[in-house]
Design goal:
seven-stranded parallel sheet, Rossmann fold, 2 domains, single chain, alpha/beta, disordered N terminus, globular, six-stranded parallel sheet
Amino acid sequence: MLGHARARLPRRPALTPPYSGSVRIAMVTDYYLPTLGGVQTAIKAHREELVRAGHHVTVFAPLAAPSPDAATVRLPTARRFAPDGYPFTWTLRAATAVLEQELVGFDVVHVHTEMFAALAAYRAARARGIPLVQTMHGRIDVYTRSVLPLPAVTTAVLAAMHRRGLGAADARIDPTAHYARTRTAQRMWRLMVGQAQQADHVIVPSEHFAGKLRAQGVRTPLTVLSNGLESSVLAAIGQPPPRHLSAGEPLRVLWCGRLSPEKRPEVFLDAMARTPGSTAVMLGDGISRAAVARRAAAIGKGRVDVRGSVPQHEVLSAMQDAHVLVSSSWDFDNQPMVLLEAVAAGLPVILADPDLAEALPPDGYLVAASPDAEGLSAALTALAGAPEHVARMSAAAIAHRPQVAQSTHRDRLLAVYDAAISARRVR
């Protein structure tokens, strides 16, 4: 059942600030490598930088096969059920039993998701008396509405299973908020709030999502802490030269993300159709792949290259070749890791959603006048006609590179762990 048998860790003495000795961290997630996505990228960055600083990190996740990495432990995984292509933890009872056994000797549990691996982590941490930190990475209300079949039914089933797995939680929400007016959205907000309320500390990568969680009733200690990129990724990119767009040169556009309705790839394609003289590369896969490929082909030969899912190093290489990254997501994303990668690569960004600008340097992006295809096309056209803006935005991104390094945020993450451990100790 487990990827590797590991020696039991002796329990360490209590932490004494500033983090004397090695902290032993169990990261639990429903999505991990080799599948691709922002959560996986964020966990990989956390892990590398914490280990470089002398701490012990083990990742627990459902996997299609045991990992060759001794510090990645496979949770019980469904054999024939992989929603949206992701391995699924099954059963909850079996995963809880594995985690209860494996968590002996760990100082803190850090959960990154909301599905069965996460629920098993809450149960096991509670049974072992280990403090638990929860990172809220995304808006599952939008994701479930966009991806799940029959969301009115499937969200009800998911919410019921979540309540049964996590137990009673104080999750009274404000249904008048514009994003919580439907019954399906309210179910998912109760799920998110209820889970956050049972953590010892909550991390949110952005102020805009943190504000929504607070408005919906989260009272757990909450820290806004940006994600970051590990040192190996920054080293692989190197020091990028500023982008240069020559007069008459086609604007080279990059789109990168899950090909799924909540990311709005079709809006991006409609924008490209309205912007002659530009070319695009689309990286990613998902349930909309076939529709995206058909729409891209209809725009014209050589205009949009849909390449599918690629590893991170190929994403970074594509960024080096592009003039601008377009984020067509709107009212969904928290802090897309691809925006941090764009900064590291010195790549200007066009946003549909102004909330996402907090991850970017002030002069390194444009926000479309409207989040639709017309607004994105207007922003692309304006940039194509102003090569000096491409160079200026690129220079701003390059100057901002230190702010997207995970090492910049590592000590604040350790401070959150310390706060959770200290709070649990005094109870």
